[in-house]
Amino acid sequence: MAQAQLPLVDTPLSLPEHPKVWKWYDYFTFNVDHKVIGIQYLVTAFIFYLIGGLMAVAMRTELATANSDFLDPNLYNAFLTNHGTIMIFLWVVPAAIGGFGNYLVPLMIGARDMAFPRLNALAFWLNPPAGALLLASFLFGGAQAGWTSYPPLSTITATTAQSMWILAIVLVGTSSIMGSVNFIVTIWKMKVPSMRWNQLPLFCWAMLATSLLALVSTPVLAAGLILLLFDINFGTSFYKPDAGGNVVIYQHLFWFYSHPAVYLMILPIFGIMSEVIPVHARKPIFGYQAIAYSSLAICCVGLFVWVHHMFTSGTPPWMRMFFTISTLIVAVPTGVKIFSWVATLWGGKIRLNSAMLFAIGLLSMFVLGGLSGVTLGTAPVDIHVHDTYYVVAHFHYVLFGGSVFGLYAGIYHWFPKMTGRLLDERLGILHFVLTFIGTNLTFLPMHELGLKGMPRRVAMYDPQFEPINLICTIGAFVLAFSIIPFLINIIWSWNKGKIAGDNPWGGLSLEWTTSSPPLIENWEVLPVVTKGPYDYGIEQRKESTDEDEDEEE
Amino acid sequence: MEQIPASIWTLTAGVVVTLISFWVGHHHGLLPEQASEQAPLVDNFFDIMLTIGTALFLVVQGAIILFVIRYRRRAGEEGDGLPVEGNLPLEAFWTAIPALIVIFLGIYSVDIFQRMGGLNPGDHAMHSMHTPKPAVAVVAEAPSKTTSDATALLAAAQTPEIGIGASPDVQGKAPDVVVDVAGMQYAWIFTYPDSGIVSGELHIPVGKDVQLNISARDVIHSFWVPQFRLKQDAIPGVPTELRFKATKVGTYPVVCAELCGGYHGAMRTQVIVHTPDDFETWRSQNQAIATAPVVPSLSDRHVEEMGVTPQLVAQVQAMTHHPSPAKF
Q1: A-contacting residues of B 176-195, CB under 8 Å?
Q2: Each residue's pLDDT tens digit, A34-77
Q3: Residues 270-299 (B) with a CB less than 8 A from some CB of A
Q4: Which residues lie across from A308 on neighbouring strands?
């Protein structure tokens, strides 16, 4: 089937009765279908998002007042450690890469499945035990050394829980490596022959860059953490200074992965943005090549910026200067993407539905997060604000305003493809408004807190910061309530929502050429690519030009 | 009526954005008071970045809002937008402008960092009033130290080469005041090696070149005085330093910025910047009793919630000054 033959909106009266669609219980098995695995990732990750979110609400409740009066300080530290860990390793990364990546990549390139389906299923099934380990670690006091787990604190505090934390991260890291190999091979070898590289959807370019980055950086984290595990449990002294070890080495190994992890979280979201914006703005993406190559540029430069997390640590002056400059350079390809998306809006016919609102909301907040990131990249300012609430504000603008908004945009955009039903737009818009207000109310004032002198990761703080903290806590509650319309929407629409049809948005990439939800092997007959995935308005313009020529004749 | 050309609107918007950005950059009031010679350098740099950032934010945000309003799909409207796929000069322009901005900021930040003294830690090493002990001497001393002191011993054997060192105006000179700063859960201990004074608060004279030799006894801590705009981790086994001049008499908080355990948030003390005369008075008063252990002032929270008692601190000090034989 050629993309060009698709009608713009196709709304059948009932869900198609496919002879080969998965039943609900297939989602609880070692199923090897990439769509089942994608949904398994998304739903599991969302459950962890709710758990991590509850931890955040508990922490913000504690921080409403200056004294430690709601949570025990050690429990507070366990919450902050696991909140960060869960949100990064069990929510954003699995949802963006595992969830959307698995569901969409084969559909977007015209493949019937991922290159290694069993490896794919195995990669997913490493996630639930990792999450269980993290949650079970609370029975042993919970890991309390922060998501960075710097030794010596991590080697002396709650050591059983800390070991469980390490094993959990190694499990998700292994899962990530397996997934990366799968994505690279799938994109490289399995796209339909008729698809040229410059017709590859930008989400797939982003996934390619993400996978390459994960493949290079994740083993370094795994190595660093295994050495830490040995220090805790087996008497080695890789990081013990009084026995010849060096604590700063751990920081290098940790951040060599964990700064690129920021790009692992945001690059797939950039991919989602590049799919959502053109469809709903009804415009070709502006600067296709610039966006594709900037993903690869971020992937390369992103490997050389990790030391900006260590400017106040044991970092020699030359390193502070080198990494200041390399960090600042990352702003250029990121800026190119943002400008391209804004330019895509120009001259469009923008549908302001929930998916588009979240995409535009992401643009707004990511700009602020990116700019505060530039200030953090420079050693002189970073020295003042490092490990303060300014940093907390920055990364929540990037990771909540960026990644989470992007995930929501993706869910509103592809939910009809995944389930065959549309989400309710009124609930979606309510969800967006509450989330947008909540995010800004929670995280914007934190910039001031950090600049004025409030360190992060504290359960008790100077009373002068209490009024601003109270505003942040109110924001956090708004953010928590914003989930409710979304949850109602998802559950209700999945069962009773309006039937979507194969292509409710009039999308041109290949996933919209199959039924909703897609068949087990995606297509009866593999599609043939006859035009690009973002050729909105081109046909229309050709027709009008032809008409004009006819009139002139 | 004749239509106003788009260039006039662009020019007007540019002027408005520039004015707003400059105003925000210079009137944000987001930073605490300046109390060190490094603080104005950092603040000026931050102001410049905030000005540029505000301008970029307003331009991008303005474009998003403008486009969303102007190009939104009206009821009943069908079809697609303009099929514009790219514009090479425009793309080159918006790649070049951020690149130039970050190159400028990069070079400027190196200059600021150099003026802060960031490029010269360890500069005073051989001229210091408090010359660190050679490693051989430390090793000879080692058997008499407890295991927990080994980290501090190793740190003392090395010259700090990490942190903020001599600013250009004092380069090559010995600092006026040297203070050894040790972080421990959940207190800072300040030792004045030339007088033997040990204190739980940092006392320094205004306008004098002060050097802090920072070490950690247990886990990583981070020494931060927001009003000085200076922060440096105290790392077990890695000696670090901060060298600065306080420029304003007053009392400022000393905050631990690195997560160091359950009561990390309570690891706070203060730095008291004296006039030179007051500092001499404080020093002479405390020097007299320096031979006896000085118990740092502890808040009720230290005692009640963390179990850090004056006796415990005195015991730690005794270990430092009168080491008891122990297995090593």
Answers
A1: none
A2: 999 999 999 999 999 999 999 999 999 999 999 988 999 999 99
A3: none
A4: none
Beta-carbon contacts of B271 under 8 Å, excluding residues fewer than 6 positions away, are B201, B202, B203, B204, B225, B228, B246, B251, B252, B253, B254
B23 phi and psi angles, rounded to 5 deg: -65, -45
Question: Is the separation of the CB atoms in A337 and A271 below 8 Å?
Answer: no
How far is residue B140 from each of residues A241, A299, B134, B217, measured CA to CA in Å? Answer: 19, 51, 10, 20
CB contact under 8 A, A360 and B105: no
- How many CB atoms are located within 10 Å of the residue A14 CB? 7
Q: Do the Cβ atoms of A141 and A78 come closer than 8 Å?
A: yes
Q: In what order do the strands lie in the sheet with B163-164?
A: B163-164, B240-245, B209-216, B177-184, B187-192, B197-199
- Count Cα atoms within 13 angstroms, Cβ side, for B237: 17
Of A316, A380, A534, the CB nearest to B116: A380
Over residues B281-317, the pLDDT tens digits come to 999 988 876 655 555 555 555 555 555 666 666 665 5
Is the complex ipTM higher than 0.95? no
> How far away is chain B from the Cα of A461, in angstroms, using its nearest Cα?
6
- List of residues 6+ apart from B27 with CB closer than 8 A: none
Mutate to test the interface with A, among B41, B59, B80 (most CBs of A within 10 A): B80
Interface of A with B in 140-159 (CB under 8 A): 144-146, 150, 152-153, 156-157
The helix/strand/coil state of B71 is: coil
